[in-house]
Amino acid sequence: MIHMSGFRWLTPGLKLKRWLVLFGLGMLLVIVGVALMLNYEWLSYFEDLFLQFIYETTGSYNYTTLASVGFITIVLGIVLMTIGTRRVGSAVVRAIIPADTDKVGDYIFQNIRMAKGPKVVVIGGGTGLSTLLRGLKTHTSNLTAIVTVADDGGSSGRLREDFKMIAPGDLRNCLVALAEKESLMEQLFRYRFGGGGDLAGHSFGNLFLTALTQILDEDVDKALEASSKILKVRGRVIPASIQNIALMAEMEDGTIVAGESQIPKAKKKIKRLFTEPASPQPQGAALQAIDEADAIVLGPGSLFTSIMPNLLIEKIAEHIKAAKAPKFYICNVMTQPGETDGFTAGDHVAAVQRLIGHGLIDTVIVNDVPFDEAVIEKYKAVGAEPVQVDTDKLSELGVRTVRASLIQHPETAVHDSERLGKVVMDVIYAMQSGLEPHILEYYLKREDR
Question: Where are the transmembrane segments (predicted)?
Answer without folding.
Answer: 20-40, 60-84
